[in-house]
Amino acid sequence: MRHTAPMAQRVVVVGAGVVGLTCAVRLLEAGHRVDVVARDLPLETTSAVAAAIWYPYRALPQTRVTAWSKTSYAAFAAVAADGPASGVRMAVGTEVLRAGQPDPWWAAAVPQLERTRDVPAGWTEGWRLTVPVVEMPVYLDWLARRVRDAGGTITRMNLGGLPEDGGTVVNCSGLGARLLGADRTVVPVRGQVVHVEQVGLDRWWLDSAGPTYVVPRSRDVVVGGTDVEGEWSRTPSAEAAADVLERAARLVPALAGARVLRHRVGLRPVRPAVRLERVGDVVHCYGHGGAGVTLSWGVADEVVGLVDR
Ligand SMILES: Cc1cc2nc3c(=O)[nH]c(=O)nc-3n(C[C@H](O)[C@H](O)[C@H](O)COP(=O)(O)OP(=O)(O)OC[C@H]3O[C@@H](n4cnc5c(N)ncnc54)[C@H](O)[C@@H]3O)c2cc1C
Fold first, then answer.
1. 3-class SS at 61?
2. Which of 134, 175, 130 is nearest to 289 (CA)?
3. Which helix (H) or strand (E) holds 291?
4. Which tens digit of pLDDT belongs to each residue from 280-298?
């Protein structure tokens, strides 16, 4: 969806993760002048750690999340159709299930969701679907390039509060909203992943009960994960890594013995509900939990609408 700015404004976007950069892209497309400021530059953010597949995980409320996810799905599909430079591709994969379950609450967000019995030993069935798979370091670079090519800036700045210079501010500070939004309802949910060598995988796999996931990328495979609420440490745990690798090899036996390349930990900004609202000159957009990538284009469109209001 494209918006035409009723009046071009100067907008400061706080945060250079996937949410801030995507908002910046859409705001620039709408004709605004945009400066992104962030303590961590794109490749240093939580967003850079994401696996990342399109999947609405640990984000609420369901109705808005489904709508945002649907918009993002279409936007990512268009980006993927433009070629591999963005790091986005559409890939088929399977979410495995242990017992008969109803369709997921977000089913309306995807064009097709099919039940399958083609699942590994230990599971009875699954949902097979095609979703965007996003190689985050490549994608974040691509988004940052789009911001700069459209005339925006990205500057490192550690803020003690939101800017108050009379312009519009879009607060995409993720977990930083505990300070910048004075919002203690945003909490870290630690996620640890292991990057292993590519062993010829193309399809993704997910067992949300784990949470266990296997996301193949161009040169490696992201294997996850963990989900520890209230944990602030970003130091990888050897025990968690061993457990993740064992669970992943049960889901995808071809991974057994794959060479470990590196370990990564990120803190998901989880909130009882995503905050997306305008208060005075500030549009708050944070608390996307385990689905910031999945929601990014959908929330960005809504942010543009709130800035233009
Ligand atoms: C292991 C793991 C796997 C994941 N997998 C997926 C997945 O497959 N699919 C998916 O959709 N999501 C996934 N996620 C979730 C996703 O990573 C997050 O929802 C997303 O990164 C949130 O993006 P964000 O831009 O809001 O926050 P962030 O990426 O955290 O960016 C916040 C920005 O705000 C800035 N900031 C904060 N405080 C200040 C301050 N005081 N001054 C200036 N700047 C500040 C930061 O420096 C940063 O630039 C995963 C997360 C983890 C940890």
1. coil
2. 175
3. none
4. 999 999 999 999 999 999 9
